[in-house]
Amino acid sequence: MAVKELNQTEQAAVLMLAIGMDRAAQIFKHMNRREVQILGTTMANIEEITPEMVDQVVEDIIIAVKSRTSLGMDTDSYIRTVLISALGPDKANSILDRILQGGSTRGIEQLKWMDSRAIADMIRLEHPQIMATILSLMDSDQAAEVIMFLPDNMRSDLIMRIATMKGVQPSALRELDEIMEKQLTGSENVKATTLGGIDAAANILNYMEGSSSDLVMSEISELRAELAQEIQDKMFVFEDIATMSATDMQGLLREIATGQLLLALRGASQDLKEKVFNNMSRRAAEILRDDLEASPPARVSDVEAAQKEILSVVRRMVDSGEIKLGGGDGGRDAYI
């Protein structure tokens, strides 16, 4: 690959492979799941890194990079070590399945760049199990968007299929790969990977609009009450933030913009508001109280959007081990 042919993602991948595991891990911590997967996949697919590539990408720090270079190493091992260091084993392994084993699911990777409505239109006539598999391969927020563009009567069935999915055999993924090849650009052979499950279903529901999520859960409860309870146990809502310890709450508040917090608290209980106030400086808490009282009415959809953005921060921090839910006064012990 010539230097001039490198796109921005490939340049970033060269840099990550050149700066060493520890530094790369620190950078990954500041990326979201989709960014990690895209960059990790690119790192895994780079066949050769030349000195010219490094010179172009690193520029002013070329001497430091060459002294700590990771060039010529086993990239699979490198990526595995970096991701586990950055994200923890649970989160990293699910991404590693897609990068190192599922790197050949390129049709799915192309879906990640498509409009959610277009994806829904493309898959709506497929067998429900194929649809569920495709949704399981997506990030939870994107899968939730796609489901919202599918007919109401499909949603609960798809969530149940995702929740009860124990894994996908190579033959099934090859079939899916062939379908994607017909509709997109095709792919190569596919290796087995673990998809779906209760966690995947719960995460997708967490990203769906509140009313739609409630309706899906209600339908699943009527059909399979035990399954619905298992999914519900894995879900968390904005009010669950109140179960954090004081230390974890303070850590979370440092990561949230004041305006975002102000909007999200418009729909919060008084108990949660007090938990937030108690973990701020006296002056900051007074200002936030005054702003809450003086701020004009906000649309429910805007409040829910702000809460979901904060929950995304919570997920990231929980996955990285920075905080946990259920660590506060009388909170639940479960991790998410």
TrEMBL record:
GO BP: any one term: chemotaxis
Membrane-topology annotation of the record: Peripheral membrane protein
Any Pfam family the entry gives: FliG_M
Record domain Flagellar motor switch protein FliG middle: where: 117-188
Coiled-coil annotated spans: none
Entry keywords, A to Z: Bacterial flagellum, Cell inner membrane, Cell membrane, Cell projection, Chemotaxis, Cilium, Flagellar rotation, Flagellum, Membrane
All copies of domain Flagellar motor switch protein FliG C-terminal, residue ranges: 219-325
Main location, first listed in the record: other
Gene Ontology cellular-component annotations: bacterial-type flagellum basal body; plasma membrane
Compartment(s): Bacterial flagellum basal body; Cell inner membrane
Domain Flagellar motor switch protein FliG N-terminal: 5-106
InterPro entries in alphabetical order: Flg_Motor_Flig, Flg_Motor_Flig_C, FliG_a-hlx, FliG_M, FliG_N
Molecular functions (GO terms): cytoskeletal motor activity
Family: Belongs to the FliG family.
NCBIfam families referenced in this protein's UniProt entry, alphabetically: fliG (TIGR00207)
Function text: FliG is one of three proteins (FliG, FliN, FliM) that forms the rotor-mounted switch complex (C ring), located at the base of the basal body. This complex interacts with the CheY and CheZ chemotaxis proteins, in addition to contacting components of the motor that determine the direction of flagellar rotation.
This protein's name: Flagellar motor switch protein FliG
Organism, scientific name: Methylocucumis oryzae
